[in-house]
Amino acid sequence: MSLFQHFVKLKNESIDIILTIKRMLVRPVMMVLHSLWIVITLQEKSWIENKKKLAEIDRNNSSSNDEMPNELIQGTAFTAGLCPPSLAVRSLFSVNFWIFYWNLEYQRIKLSRNLPAYLTSQGAKVPNTAQIIPVLTKKFYLFDNDKINMEIIKLRSLIKDKHFIKLSDYYNELNYPIDFMIIYIEEAHASDGWKFDRPKYSFIKNHKNIQDRLNAVKMLIEITNITKENHLSIYSDTMDNHTNHLFRAWPERLYVLHNDQILYQGQPGPSGYSIPTLDYFLKRNVKKQ
Fold this sequence. Notes:
10 helices; Iodothyronine deiodinase; 4-stranded mixed beta sheet; oxidoreductase; thyroxine 5'-deiodinase activity; single chain; selenocysteine; thyroid hormones biosynthesis; Glutaredoxin; alpha+beta; 49% helix
């Protein structure tokens, strides 16, 4: 590597660090300070109730005006009950929280250059590089045998094969040809990372290899009692997290894919995770059989 190349690399690294600092000030620092204010002014309970009421009003307005529910309003209400402000405040005193968030924002800066977000924006084609590992489908369960026969497939191949699975209750209600899929990605709150102080949220360590990730998927299946009869497909991301990075899926995100195309892209979770918005989109854009 030449001296000039070293200089360019150092310059880019410096820019990335400065941009990461800015993002840290805008996101986690402001989030914690806002949560701290809510807690010390004893507004937490009323704040949570207010968010839930706003979400209910938004859903009612959506129904009467035939408008899509606001993802951020719905997502914030959903998150408020699970992760109240006091939980965010306790993160303030966790070194792991700040290390985790620094790495997250630094990674996002890198991704914006190497894997631009427009690659998986609404209307774009599903990238051919998105790969997943089948774990549970209508005809297959990875852990049925002692010897794991792992296969990596392209996400696009499922759409090209017109692979539709009817999720019993939802399908019967709406009568739509919908394939519901879960793609398990890296942990949001690993027990050895940014750990929540509630055991039900943080009891799985960061995946060090693909076996760790597959074991985590297996735990999900067993805890939620999902079987082949549920007609719900579950896949795992590969250990390079490429599909997760492509779709900016961490910690959770909703998509609708059809004919190699991204028809719907939900806002990033948890504050943008909105089932009512997805439901509205499906009812108005997916043809009934």
